[in-house]
Specification:
three-stranded antiparallel β-sheet, Endonuclease_MobA/VirD2, Mobilization protein, single chain, 9 helices, alpha+beta
């Protein structure tokens, strides 16, 4: 599970409009609140007559501790954290995501468990594989949030969450985090009627082939059997240096296949890393 944290100035309404809205490429689906600081915060529903009203009401409630300080409010007032599961992870329920959000908020110091004066926050889900947490950085008692190394603490808590929920384990700083699909990739997948992007589909097929194969030759054969187009990159000597894969029918405007190298799907799917794994298997 990968946490991505950012901060901002001003109120929360602009961030909330994005989280509850359709997305930049209409990629957001079933946008809704999974948890909040008080358990009954407004839940703006995009496409309903009261959407703008509920969005404004939620922003005002979140921002109230900041607004109360007036000119004494800190410059940085908004905290935003996205939490994304790996493509191969099971789909988590809203209740599970709510618990995960509270754990990360407690670990980072935004809303420690049992602290009734902690910062206000809301967790929003608009896709099957991730949530967003929007919070303000002024506590309900008017003091600033107790933030210290929040990114490191979020990473550490995500490692514990992975273990507790049986998710893909990512060691801190091991470089195996898979690149996330872009909004454009999500939009294209939906336009083609797919539930996952080409990057995600190919990553899953490559992982499956790597898990079953006993050596490099078998790995490439299995990839072809799984429906992926495969091209190898050769050195002048003829040795294979790397590989790239594409989905049949997934082309660019010129009609050419859209290729992904193993390392761009995920660092641990590069050919050198796969070879090392094959060599260490019994």
């Amino acid at each position: 599970m990968i946490p991505k944290i950012g901060t901002g100035k001003g109120g929360t309404r602009r961030l909330l409009a994005y989280l509850y809205g359709p997305g930049r490429h209409n990629e957001h689906t079933d946008q809704h609140t999974v948890a909040s600081w008080n358990g009954f915060a407004p839940d703006p529903r995009h496409g309903t007559p009261g959407f703008a009203r509920d969005l404004t009401a939620l922003a005002r409630q979140l921002d109230q501790p900041v607004t109360a300080l007036g000119e004494d409010a800190p410059k940085t007032t908004v905290w935003h954290c996205s939490l994304r599961a790996a493509p191969e992870d099971p789909i988590l329920t809203d209740e599970q995501w709510a618990t995960i959000a509270r754990r990360v908020l407690s670990a980072t110091g935004i809303a420690p468990t049992g602290d009734q004066e902690a910062c206000r926050w809301v967790a929003v889900r608009h896709a099957p594989d991730h949530i967003h947490i929007a919070a303000t950085l002024v506590r309900r008692d008017g003091r600033p949030a107790r933030l210290s190394m929040d990114r490191r603490k979020a990473q550490a808590e995500c490692r514990r969450i992975e273990a507790d929920y049986g998710l893909r384990r990512l060691n801190p700083g091991d470089g195996t985090a898979a690149p996330r699909p872009t909004g454009r990739e999500h939009f294209k997948a939906r336009r083609r009627g797919h539930t996952a992007t080409s990057r995600e589909l190919l990553r899953a097929r490559v992982r499956k082939a790597a898990a079953v194969a006993g050596d490099e030759e078998q790995f490439f054969a299995l990839l072809t059997d799984l429906g992926a187009r495969v091209e190898k990159r050769h050195a002048p000597s003829g040795d294979v240096l790397g590989y790239k894969v594409a989905l049949p029918g997934d082309t660019n405007a010129d009609g050419r296949p859209i290729w992904y190298s193993g390392s761009t799907l995920s660092p641990d799917l590069s050919l050198p890393r796969l070879r090392a794994a094959f060599d260490t298997e019994p």
